[in-house]
Amino acid sequence: MPAARDLGGIRFGLLTVVERRSAPSPQGRHRTRWLCSCDCAKRGQAPTRSVAVRLRYATHQGNRHARQRKAEGFYTEAEIAALYIEQSGHCKACGTDLADGFHRDHIIPLSSGGSNWIANIQLLCSSCNVRKRTKPWERFLAERMAA
Questions:
Q1: Using CA atoms, how far apart are residues 75 and 56, in angstroms rounded to an integer?
Q2: Please, which residues bridge with residue 20 across strands?
Q3: Using alpha carbons only, what angle is made at residue 78 by residues 82 and 4, rounded to the nearest 5 degrees?
């Protein structure tokens, strides 16, 4: 059985993961659930699927896209979670809070020969990522400062 990921302290929308709980199901298997707290001060348990699957699916899709572009490298869910913490949950370009969602952006775009390693990934809000498109990071910042 694979080791459980520690999602404690990570935000997903309005929910903040507090702790992992494991309990037996009626079939005798263990079900992992997460104790989450909401911004409205409510606390409740969420199944692993609702918390972790979004992160896993988005990571899989990002790596799949890079493979289709024949880009070198890949990143994991844990690396994205660590990057989220490193960026303090804020957009790298505008500083917007990323609690409601974020895009994984390639600093050097795949279309310009950039890699898919975590060192070439940054987290942006959706509006900044849509505006950046396939521009290199430095060019995007220069255009943003000129505007």
A1: 11
A2: 34
A3: 130
Phi-psi region of 69 (alpha: psi -120 to 50; beta: other; left: phi over 0): alpha
* pLDDT averaged over every residue in the chain: 78
Residue 35 host element (H or E): strand 30-38
Encode pLDDT of 48-98 as tens digits. 454 466 677 778 888 888 998 899 999 988 888 888 888 888 999 999 988
Strand, helix or coil at 31? strand
Question: Could you tell me the fold of the domain covering 11-146?
Answer: Herpes Virus-1 (3.30.40)
DSSP annotation of 41: S
Per-domain residue ranges of the chain: 11-146
Q: How far apart are CA 107 and CA 84, in angstroms?
A: 15
Q: How many CA atoms lie within 13 A of 1 on its CB side?
A: 6
Of 12 and 50, the structure prediction assigns the larger pLDDT to 12
